[in-house]
UniProtKB/TrEMBL annotation:
Gene3D superfamilies: Nucleotide-binding domain of ferredoxin-NADP reductase (FNR) module (3.40.50.80)
A biological process term (GO) from this entry: defense response
Name by which UniProt lists this protein: Dual oxidase 2
Upper classification of the organism: Eukaryota, Metazoa, Ecdysozoa, Arthropoda, Crustacea
CC per GO annotation: NADPH oxidase complex
Length: 242
């Protein structure tokens, strides 16, 4: 069993990944220490006939990403495992889209996810596929940025990039993910992305929500401040760091 010392000396963020309408609560927990390793072992052993230990939870507590529906134009920026809270948001969007398009004030969602490799987002594919299937009005635009090849942009990477772009333009979905989401083999240029949104946006205020490393949040914040130099469209940035 876990000792009090184990619990007190280790800090692990537990991220809710289920939507409010779900009957069951799902969590994503980073296993990086003795008691979270044990937690993964106990709950991951499906063959075990032992009774699962009880878990006591307190909450709910407020969180900055919960007010995404207050904005007509929304930008969601995830870095690595920082995608987990957006998994919950996207599931909630799917549910609301199934209910009625009119229940959502938000008219356009731009979901940007930066990840090192394809393997790191395979678990998210089913969620994105469900989102795209429910999004009949196509209000959600997904861009996946794979940064693993950043320092090794060789001929192989160029060919992969060109093949995926061609397949996407011809068939309407990615060769690698089978999603409408566009795959990029680079880091996102937030200045360029926000500038493009600013030109196309019809709303006066854009809600920007980021989750990931502090460097990611700082990069998004700098770009938002740069865009806010001209007060015609305001970018409001909310962030959470892992």
């Amino acid at each position: 069993m876990w000792s009090v010392v184990d619990v007190l000396q280790e800090f692990h963020p537990f991220t809710l990944s289920s939507a409010p309408h779900h009957a069951n609560l799902t969590l994503h927990i980073r296993a990086v220490g003795p008691w979270t390793w044990k937690l993964a072992e106990v709950y991951g052993d499906k063959a075990s006939s032992a009774k699962y230990p009880e878990i006591y939870m307190d909450g709910p507590f407020g969180e900055a990403h919960q007010n995404w529906w207050d904005y007509e134009e929304v930008v969601l920026v995830a870095g690595g495992i920082g995608v987990t809270p957006f998994a919950s948001i996207l599931k909630d969007m799917v549910y609301k889209l199934h209910q009625s398009f009119k229940v959502i004030r938000t008219k356009q969602v731009h979901f940007l996810w930066t990840t090192r490799s394809q393997k790191q987002y395979e678990w998210m594919i089913d969620i994105l596929r469900e989102v795209e299937a429910a999004d009949k009005h196509k209000i959600i635009k997904v861009h996946i940025f794979i940064t693993q090849f950043k320092s090794k942009f060789d001929l192989r990477t160029i060919m992969l990039y060109m093949a995926d772009r061609f397949h996407h333009s011809e068939c309407g979905f990615s060769l690698f993910t089978q999603l409408r989401a566009i795959t990029h083999f680079e880091r996102p240029n937030f200045d360029s992305i926000l500038q493009t949104l600013k030109k196309e946006c019809k709303a006066n205020v854009i809600g920007v929500f980021s989750c990931g490393s502090s460097s990611l949040s700082h990069a998004v914040e700098r770009s938002c401040r740069e865009m806010n130099r001209a007060p015609d469209i305001i970018f409001r940035h909310y962030y959470k760091n892992f």
